[in-house]
Amino acid sequence: MKRRNFLKVSGLASAGLAVSAEAKPLEQRRLISGAPCVLSTWRHGVDANKAAWAVLDQKGSALDAVESGVRVTESDPESQSVGLGGLPDREGKVTLDACIMDHESNCGAVAFLQNIENPISVARRVMETTPHVFLAGKGAYRFAREQGFPHTELLTEKSRKAWEKWRENEKAEKPPINQENHDTIGMLALDAEGNLSGACTTSGWAYKLHGRVGDSPIIGAGLFVDNEVGAACATGMGEAVIRIAGSATVVELMRHGYSPQQACQEAVERIKAKHKDLKGLQVGFLALNRSGEVGAHSVYAGFDYAYRDAQSEEMRKASFDRNW
Ligand code: SD4
């Protein structure tokens, strides 16, 4: 597709987003790979980035970095939206979704996994030891146990109490999505070799229907990596992210010349275009290209992310379209 046509169909022009004069499709430019860095969604990303940076700083791989990083959040009982201590579904069961992807487009995923504290490592094991990409439910659990992962009770006292309180006031509709009950960790890293990897892990939408799976374990929705271009991950209402193949869309936009920031903004435009009613529909995207440029944008205010490289370690606020 000619670039002019691509812009026309993308809706970028109508969204009023400017593409810089240098923006060119990938085949017309060379992205020089940037210095190592790691970024991850929400405040729990600070501690996760620490663990990831310990790997990157020793010239370790981006793949090892993202796995080590998000394991910290999965194992933190205080984080009520990921791994141990995650808020359960409406039946009181903690069910976990995760995926991982490396610079060679190898990927692994698990969904609807119960009683395993570190689903990201199970996802990596699926990627590295099986001919498959995705295991779900009982099969994923059995595989994890065979691989030596311990059986763990994931419902903490704090999360059980929150669920009981929710049940007292249970309404027919699902709970609203906001920063309190919806904060997956998605992590993207660039290593010293110039390779990208990503990981995404969550307990999903609090008090969801039993069996519900969101975007987080779906390669192309919750996470996507293409080492030629960049990487992206998503947080927020998974149903909306799946509808636009969110993370794959962000990466593909970068391939066509969008900066990471422009790509995240355009993906949010697509979400907006597909949903007449945006009330409470929070989605945020994070993106990183091969040069180490970063982008972050969300539908509503409040999305932030942790960034770390050799010079800086900080929380950053994403740009957004609307106030709550
Ligand atoms: C999901 N996207 O299960 C995940 C949840 C999330 O911030 O990202 N929360 O829909």
Describe the protein in words.
- By secondary structure, the chain is an alpha+beta fold.
- The chain has one domain: 4-Layer Sandwich (Glutamine Phosphoribosylpyrophosphate, subunit 1, domain 1).
- 30% of the residues lie in helices and 23% in strands.
- The protein has 9 helices and 13 strands.
- It has helices at 3-10, 45-57, 62-74, 119-129, 137-146, 157-168, 238-243, 246-255, 260-274, and strands spanning 37-41, 96-101, 107-113, 134-136, 185-190, 196-202, 223-226, 230-236, 283-289, 294-300, 304-309, 313-317, 319-322.
- The strands form 2 sheets. It has an 8-stranded mixed β-sheet with strand order 4-3-2-6-5-1-11-12. A 5-stranded mixed β-sheet has the order 7-8-9-10-13.
- Helix 2 (45-57) packs antiparallel against helix 3 (62-74) and helix 8 packs across helix 9.
- The radius of gyration is 19 Å and the shape is globular.
- The protein starts with a helix and ends with a strand.
- Mean pLDDT is 89; it is low at 1-18.
- N-hydroxy-L-asparagine is lined by residues 81, 182-184, 202, 204-205, 214-216, 235-238.
